[in-house]
Structure formats: structure tokens, C-alpha cells
Amino acid sequence: AKEPMRVLVTGAAGQIGYALVPMIARGVMLGADQPVILHMLDIPPAVEALNGVKMELVDAAFPLLKGVVATTDAVEACTGVNVAVMVGGFPRKEGMERKDVMSKNVSIYKSQASALEAHAAPNCKVLVVANPANTNALILKEFAPSIPEKNITCLTRLDHNRALGQISERLNVQVSDVKNAIIWGNHSSSQYPDVNHATVKTPNGEKPVRELVANDEWLNTEFISTVQQRGAAIIKARKFSSALSAASSACDHIRNWVLGTPEGTFVSMGVYSDGSYGVPAGLIYSFPVTCSGGDWTIVQGLPIDKFSREKMDATAQELSEEKALAYSCLN
Ligand code: NAI
Question: Is the Cβ atom of 130 under 6 angstroms away from ligand 1?
């Protein structure tokens, strides 16, 4: 039998946490043969709710779940973890300045970076979900210098999956037959959902999405804005932000990272830019990646047209500005 893996979920008493922890305990994230020990961190005002979640985990009698740590102590939460899913953060409230929200999150991610660096298992993989996800991940990276930069990522898989979902609805095909959409850049409305390399499995072989949709106007306008604005549409409909789809996509992100992507398939992950595709190095930017042996690699050599280039640059620009804002909060 495999040794259990320790998985940290911060903000575990929140909405995404509530959807995510049962998925992890069921093996959705790490595989149906991988026992897990869940570490759940939240803050003191949420401690009762956190303990309630722990009670439900016990009640659900998950065979793969070998232990639960529920705590408000970041050191205890981070100790020995192999995977860290950072969902906790400070939400933007009505009337709050962008800088104030950034400042709160910078201080959270700075201190949690230190706790992870000092106490997580070697080679711990980190996924930041909490917004501003890319910039929180960047702060975490900067303040955990001994964690390799390749181990720190942010979630854009939800946006990626939304893009696959929109294509599948439009073409009336199974979502599992659609692949290789790309989310470039920031997990914000400046992101660029790109289907220039996406394909659909058909009875006559794999076909480019552009050929099947045959309506460039829709692909270049409504498709993009629907994916960019999907988070807002969910809030409008549900009065709460996406939780089940965020949790499921976080599982997809970690599962592919740890267990690999299928041959010929790439997925989107926010990773530390090495300057690929002319994206400024030193940003956490969403790229197409393949994963193997527990590591991601940016897919190289995809042709980029002028339309895409402009959108990729605009979202990079936004991330550079967010980075500057985050740094200004440090002083
Ligand atoms: P929520 O407000 O329901 O839960 C957040 C939890 O974090 C709360 O329980 C809160 O007490 C906790 N928390 C706050 N500060 C903390 C700290 N310093 N340490 C540990 N826990 C802390 O929010 P929800 O809906 O679960 O969303 C969580 C985050 O994920 C938000 O920032 C949201 O914007 C983001 N998000 C990101 C997505 C993505 O695709 N990257 C998609 C959807 C949401």
C-alpha cells in the first residue's frame, strides 16, 4: 500500500474548501489508490465552521482518508505537506481599494510562504487558488526562496475547462473530445482564451476547432468574453462565486501535475515565466504546459498570430502592474 500524502487546503472552511476536501478525500486529486491526510487551515473567526467540516469528513468515512488536521496555526498546517492548495485569502469587499485588498493578500502570502518554506515536505507542490491568484503565487515564490520556482503555480485550469465547455456546447460534442485550448496570462478578465491550437475528436479524426466552428467572428469575440466573464456570470446566478468548478479544476491541475498529462494533450497552468513566447520573465503567467514525472514544461513553438500577440501582451501588462502594486505594498 502507498504511504499517505499530506495535502494542505488553506481557507478550508470556505466555499471552495467545502467542495474541495471531499474530492481530495475521494481520490479525485491524487488517484483512487493514493491515501491522503488532509491538513485544513483557516483563521480564528472560522474555527467552528472548520471543525464542522472536519466532523463531516469523519462522518463520510472515506476509505482513503487516513487523518485530518484542522487548525488555525499555519506552522502546524504546513508541517510535512506534499501538496499545498492555497484557497484562503482576503476577498475584495464593496468599496475597498484595489491596493488595500492587495496589501492584505500580500501579507497573508508572505507569511504563509515562510511557513511552507520552513515546514512543508521537500519538493512540496504549491497551487494558489485565491485571488489575485497569479500575484499571490508570485509573492509566495519570492518569500519562499528555497522552494524551487517550478513548484509554485496558480490556478487557471478553471478558465481552461470553461473554454473547453464553451466549445463543447457550441459544437454539441462531448467535452472529453475537446482539448488543447490555452489560457494565456492572468486569472482575471484580461486573460486570453486561445483556441487556435484546440482540436476536437471526431469520427473522421482530430479536427481543429477553428475548422469545425467555422465562425471566426464568434470565436474572436463572444467566445473570449464568455470565458473571461464566466466567473461574474456565476456570481450573478448563484450569488456566490464558482466553487464546485473551482474545486474540480484544482483537482485536475494537481492530478495532471503529479500524474502527468496524456500524450498529445496540453493544459493551462499559471507558472513562473522564463520568457517563453516573449512573456516577461519573473511573472506568474498562464501558459500551455505538458506534465511528466511530476514536472510541467511549457509547450514550445506554437505559432502566435497578431491577434493573439496583442492579447497576450495586454494580460502580461496587467500582471506587471499587479506585481508593481504588490511590491509597493511590501514597503
Ligand atoms: P470564501 O470566502 O468562501 O473562503 C475563503 C476562506 O479563506 C474563508 O474560510 C476565510 O476564513 C479563509 N481565510 C481568510 N484568510 C485566511 C488566512 N490568512 N489563512 C487561511 N485561511 C484564510 O471564498 P471562496 O469562494 O472559497 O474562494 C476562495 C478564493 O478563491 C477567493 O480568493 C476567490 O476569489 C478565489 N477563486 C479563484 C478561482 C480561480 O480559478 N483561481 C476561482 C474561484 C475563486
Answer: yes
Which of 129, 138, 160, 183 has the most ligand 1 atoms within 8 A of CB, as the residue to mutate? 129
User: How confident is the model over 21-78, as pLDDT tens digits?
Assistant: 999 999 999 999 999 999 999 999 999 999 999 999 999 999 999 999 999 999 999 9
Residues sharing a CB contact under 8 Å with residue 94, sequence separation 6 or more, in sequence order: none
DSSP state of 150: G
Query: For the segment 218-227, what is each residue's pLDDT rounded down to a tens digit?
Result: 999 999 999 9
CB atoms within 10 A of CB 19: 18
| Dist CA 150 CA 86 (whole Å) | 16
Active site residue ranges: 187
List Cβ neighbours of 101 (8 Å cut-off, separation of 6 or more): 90, 91, 92, 93
Is the predicted ipTM greater than 0.90, yes or no? yes
Concatenating the DSSP letter of every residue in 178-222 gives EE--EEEB-SSTT-EEE-TT-EEEETTEEEEHHHHH--HHHHHTH
Please tell me if the CB atom of residue 133 comes closer than 6 angstroms to any atom of ligand 1. Answer: yes
With a 6 Å cutoff on the Cβ, whether 131 touches ligand 1 is yes
Q: How far is the CA of 205 from the centre of ligand 1 (A)?
A: 41
Helix axes 15-25, 244-259, angle to 10 degrees: 40
**Residue 65 one-letter amino acid:** L
CB 197 within 8 A of CB 184: no
Q: What is the DSSP letter of 92?
A: P
* Residue of 109, 131, 158 to test ligand 1 pocket, by largest number of atoms within 8 Å of CB: 131
Distance CA 209, CA 47 (A): 47
* Burial classification of residue 114, based on how many CB atoms lie within 10 Å of its CB (0-12 exposed, 13-18 middle, 19 or more buried): middle
**DSSP H or E stretch at residue 296:** strand 295-298
Grid cell at residue 181: 485550448
Residue pair 82/119 in contact by the 8 Å Cβ criterion: no
